[in-house]
Amino acid sequence: MAAATSDRPYHIIIFGATGFTGQFVVEEVARCAAETPGDSSLKWAVAGRSRQRLEAVLEKAAGRLSMPELRTDTEIIVADVSIEESLAIMCQQGVVILNCVGPYRFYGEPVVKACIENGAHYVDICGEPQFLERMQLEYHTNALDRGVYVIGSCGFDSIPADLGILYTQRQFKGKMTAVESFLKISSGPEGSSGHDATWQSAVYGFADSGSLRQLRKKFGHKPLPVVGAKVKKRGFVFFSKEIEQYAIPFMGSDPSVVKRTQRFLYEEEHQSPVQYSAYVGVGGLFSIAKFFCGGLLFWVMVKFSLGRKLLTMFPSFFSFGLFSKAGPTMKQIEDTCFSLTFFGEGYSEGTDPSQGRPNAKICTQVVGAEPGYVATVSAMVQAAVTMLNELHSLPRRGGVYTPGAAFYKTSLIDRLQNHSIKFSVRNYQ
User: Fold this and answer.
1) Do the beta carbons of residue 311 and residue 298 sit within 8 Å?
2) Does one domain contain both 284 and 416?
3) pLDDT for 37
4) Which PANTHER family match (predicted)?
5) pLDDT at position 393, please?
6) 10 Å Cβ neighbour count for 367?
7) Which of 95, 177, 391, 399 could be a cystine partner for 228, CB 3.0 to 4.6 Å?
8) For the chain, what is the radius of gyration of the CA atoms?
9) For the chain, what percentages of helix, strand and coil (3-state, to nearest 5) are there?
């Protein structure tokens, strides 16, 4: 593990520890620190705007984990996104900053900037393609020059998808050229729910989708080559035999993140890029009808400032209870899990992809506990621990990367296997 020194006394600092997700990150870091006692133990601190609220978070974590020492032994750092000096002081004390303050389009950039300027590595759980891609465009060169790693989307968005494809490629005997993923979320009798902050990110992200297209033009990328047979996209709504329910294209950041990883592997590692399509199960015909009506209303409302204001004021009403200002209950979290199934195709060893249709298939799966506040925090913390232990295996000497690009040559998948996110090969039906 990278040393915590007098200059940087903490391996990890959790910024935004009082937020809904941040509180779960505090508990996960505390559990992780307990796994490595003694001189090599993980040294960490919490940071945020209010010392009083940070003390309350530590009090709550101490009670839930039966770790009374958290109340007195955990350092508190007061830092505010709007106060540049406070961010600098925070970043100067940590090796890795876990940024839990969203929506990132509003609050993320000052933290990225402070980390780069003050030599701290940065990890977030952002699912906002506009923010993620803009940080790469504007800060990659500076981060590379400063020897700082900035790694976004290290939560459920998008570690299961990004690393799931890498895992599938490694298990494939030959050259995999295309993969489809199907997300299925299962919940208990109380259903599943997300917090308001995630809803806000979606509202403002969809409202600003036009700027993402303009942003991508600035990269000047040439299209990635298509190796093997070109995969036809599915319809907007279709019945998936793979997961035995109706499915739609996945609207999250996974396709954006995966494509950036595939570009990195093509340009830096000279690997053939994989075509990728992501879908999510939505249930039966009633769910389809509800989704269509809600989705149509959402698309209309995000186009106008009044509509966006109403959407963010009443998330539970407009999302049919899928998001709320209170967030999910502990019972909902405990009863919810996810599976992300990959169906890959390609060419067996010794077969030329330019000759004919794919002749080999593979099915893999990534499964885990509740995606938003269990799998996400586990992925984020293990990404940070991997950085601390295997910095030499990350690309170049710094820069802005996706999880797949950053952790391609590390043991992160193995670490996740031991921390509630499982990767496996399945029988292809």
Assistant:
1) yes
2) yes
3) 65
4) SACCHAROPINE DEHYDROGENASE-LIKE OXIDOREDUCTASE (PTHR12286:SF5)
5) 97
6) 17
7) 177
8) 21
9) 45, 20, 30
Pairing of strands 360-369, 337-348: antiparallel
Distance of CA 312 to the CA centre of its chain: 22
**Nearest by Cα to 46 from 73, 10, 75:** 75
Task: List the Cα angle 329/334/337 in 5-degree steps.
Answer: 115
CA 197 – CA 325 distance, rounded (Å): 8
- pLDDT for the residue 405: 98
C-alpha separations of 328 from 53, 195, 316, 323, 372 in Å = 20, 7, 11, 8, 10
The one-letter amino acid code at 118 reads N
Pairing state of beta strands 245-249 and 275-283?
antiparallel
Question: What confidence score (pLDDT) does residue 57 get?
Answer: 98
Q: What band does 411 get if pLDDT is binned at 50, 70 and 90?
A: very high
Please give the DSSP secondary-structure letter assigned to residue 371. Answer: I
pLDDT tens by residue, 126-158 = 999 999 999 999 999 999 999 999 999 999 999
Provide the pLDDT for residue 133: 96
262 occurs within a structural domain: yes
Reading the block at residue 11, the tokens are 């391996």
Q: Which two tokens stand for residue 422?
A: 């499982």
- At 4 the pLDDT is 56
Q: Is there a domain that residue 4 lies in?
A: no
Cα(first)–Cα(last) distance of the chain, in Å? 43
Q: State the residue range of the domain holding 298.
A: 159-375+411-426
Average pLDDT over every residue of 11-33 = 97
What is the spatial distance between Cα 313 and Cα 143, in angstroms, rounded to a whole number? Answer: 37
Same domain, 105 and 135: yes
Q: What is the DSSP letter of 237?
A: S
Asked whether residue 215 falls in the same domain as residue 335, the answer is: yes
- CATH number for position 399: 3.40.50.720
What is the number of residues in the chain?
429
In this structure, the strands spanning 360-369 and 323-324 are: unpaired
Residue 5 maps to a domain: no
**224 and 134 co-located in one domain:** no
Q: In the 8-state DSSP scheme, what is residue 375? A: I
Are residues 311 and 288 part of one domain?
Answer: yes
Number of structural domains in the chain: 2
Is residue 339 scored above 90 in pLDDT?
yes
Q: Which residue has the higher pLDDT, 195 or 39?
A: 195
Domain co-membership, 266 together with 354: yes
Q: What is the CATH number of the domain that holds 260?
A: 3.30.360
Paired sense of beta strands 44-48 and 75-78, if any = parallel
Round to whole Å and give the CA distance between 204 and 196: 12
Both 24 and 130 in one domain: the answer is yes
Is 206 in the same domain as 299?
yes
